């Protein structure tokens, strides 16, 4: 039985911008109940609607993730779908060790999502649910300047590949692997020239929701990326070489 978004109770993280904001806008078209969260939900311009709840949570702290689950159950009574979309990126040259710098991005991009996935299983028990982890195509290949970000997504990918087999047949861990998306994500990281090709955020969000509804274990908004990754992985190295030249120019 596939996921039916109509009448579903949904938690969406990273909902204030980019893919998360587009997912929020599209989910609001369904007759569902949503708890949408980010660190800055007060910045979101969205129409007031019954059964949509905005709340700030900083998901690099386990206590905040626990608080999110408590809040969601207070408002909705149960969770059918959890979309772990929170994340950020550094574009940088790593010159010196900085443990806190490394730890922060892993706590948000990787550890927080894993913690939420396990928490979801604990709370739901044997009840059906879907957990969606928005990873990245960078989880398959690493670019200079994005080394830490890529490593967080590779780790999240590795977790999902094993953990999904620990769930009941009616429980689904779904991984999403978008390529570069036309949002402010890269600019906020300090990169004015994101890798190419890029896809529109509308296309990515539409593909994610379609994949969720079909209970797909892996969702690839770019069919070309999936094809190259699967059949011609050596072509992905061309992108690495292009980013290497750009990196040496921008961050010598």
UniProtKB/TrEMBL annotation:
Q: Name one Pfam family in it.
A: adh_short
Q: Does the keyword NAD apply?
A: no
Tell me which SUPFAM superfamilies the record gives.
NAD(P)-binding Rossmann-fold domains
Which residue ranges run through the membrane?
224-242
Q: Which UniProt keywords apply?
A: Membrane, Oxidoreductase, Transmembrane, Transmembrane helix
Superkingdom, according to UniProt?
Bacteria
Any one GO cellular component localisation term in the record: membrane
Query: Is the keyword Membrane in the record?
Result: yes
Give one GO molecular function term.
oxidoreductase activity
Among InterPro entries, the record links this protein to: NAD(P)-bd_dom_sf (IPR036291), SDR_fam (IPR002347)
Q: Which family does it belong to?
A: Belongs to the short-chain dehydrogenases/reductases (SDR) family.
Would you tell me the protein name for this molecule? SDR family NAD(P)-dependent oxidoreductase
């Amino acid at each position: 039985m596939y996921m039916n978004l109509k009448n579903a109770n949904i938690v969406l993280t990273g909902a204030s911008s980019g893919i998360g904001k587009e997912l929020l806008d599209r989910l609001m078209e369904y007759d569902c109940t949503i708890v949408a969260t980010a660190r800055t939900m007060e910045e979101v311009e969205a129409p007031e609607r019954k059964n949509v709840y905005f709340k700030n949570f900083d998901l690099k702290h386990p206590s905040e993730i626990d608080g999110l689950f408590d809040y969601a159950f207070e408002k909705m009574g149960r969770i059918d779908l959890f979309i772990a979309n929170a994340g950020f990126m550094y574009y940088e040259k790593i010159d010196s060790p900085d443990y806190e710098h490394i730890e922060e991005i892993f706590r948000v991009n990787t550890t927080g999502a894993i913690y939420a996935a396990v928490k979801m299983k604990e709370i739901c028990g044997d009840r059906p649910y879907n957990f969606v982890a928005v990873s990245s195509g960078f989880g398959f290949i690493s670019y200079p300047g994005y080394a830490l970000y890529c490593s967080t997504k590779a780790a999240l990918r590795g977790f999902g590949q094993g953990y999904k087999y620990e769930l009941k047949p009616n429980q689904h861990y779904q991984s999403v692997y978008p390529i570069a998306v036309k949002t402010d994500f890269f600019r906020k990281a300090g990169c004015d020239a994101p890798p190419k090709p890029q896809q529109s955020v509308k296309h990515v969000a539409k593909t994610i929701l379609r994949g969720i509804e079909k209970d797909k274990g892996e969702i690839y908004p770019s069919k070309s990326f999936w094809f190259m990754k699967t059949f011609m992985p050596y072509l992905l190295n061309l992108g690495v070489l292009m980013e290497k030249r750009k990196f040496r120019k921008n961050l010598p």
